[in-house]
């Protein structure tokens, strides 16, 4: 697959709680798409292992890893936009001609909207175009009555972030992630019955904006064209 030349790099923001399946989705995308993608990863604290998982998937030559996988580990990205995200993006865009797109994986604590708004900064908006926000939800956890599989791990992440300055109620965060979504992916759908998947799709469809698709996902297998173009 190739991306047609464009004046601005497509950017997809992937959000969702810790353990929802974001890194599995990204690993599959990087390995199977054939695209030259850069990834910004925002998990942090003792649970911030996503960067290592992505680096180890073999999606690019080892000497390119430092320029293709960037870990933002100083706190929730939407709270550190100006201090950390903007400088990193400016540096990354210096080699925009070597990339087909950028994927930003937020932490499970981040609010997607402030991050999307950061792409309107003059230094960034002329070189990027945000295709949309992809929210990954844990279908198995939702089916069991919880929006996150491991609330204690999420709480540990929250405690490890001194920069956090917004709401931290889990259900409120979940609602915010759904409201910001341009696409919702329900992970671990292969662990559920068809009836359970249909029930969750109807529930989630009632919580997102009109026209936003809710799609089941197994092992991160989603077409690259959908993720990077949200067609």
Write up what this structure looks like.
The protein has 231 residues and is α/β, with parallel strands linked by helices. It is 38% helix and 17% strand. The protein is built from 11 helices and 7 strands. Strands 3-2-4-1-5-6-7 form a 7-stranded parallel sheet, sandwiched between helices. The protein is globular and about 50 Å long. The two termini are 15 Å apart.
What would a concise description of this structure say?
This protein has helices at 22-32, 50-55, 65-68, 81-92, 112-118, 122-125, 139-143, 151-159, 170-180, 194-205, 224-229; strands spanning 9-15, 37-41, 69-71, 101-105, 128-138, 183-187, 213-216. It is an alpha/beta fold.
Could you outline the blueprint of secondary structure elements for this entry?
Layout: E1 9-15, H1 22-32, E2 37-41, H2 50-55, H3 65-68, E3 69-71, H4 81-92, E4 101-105, H5 112-118, H6 122-125, E5 128-138, H7 139-143, H8 151-159, H9 170-180, E6 183-187, H10 194-205, E7 213-216, H11 224-229
Parallel strand pairs: 1-4, 1-5, 2-3, 2-4, 5-6, 6-7
Protein structure class: alpha/beta
State the end-to-end distance.
15 Å
* Cα shape: globular
Which H/E pattern describes the elements?
A: EHEHHEHEHHEHHHEHEH
Strand content: 15-25%
Q: What Rg is obtained from the alpha carbons, in whole angstroms?
A: 17 Å
> What is the number of helical segments per DSSP (H or I, 4+ residues)?
11
Placed side by side, the strands forming the largest sheet appear as 3-2-4-1-5-6-7
pLDDT under 50 segments (min length 5)? 1-5, 45-49
Mean pLDDT over all positions? 81
How many distinct beta strands?
7
Largest sheet: 7 strands, parallel
Helix share, percent: 25-40%
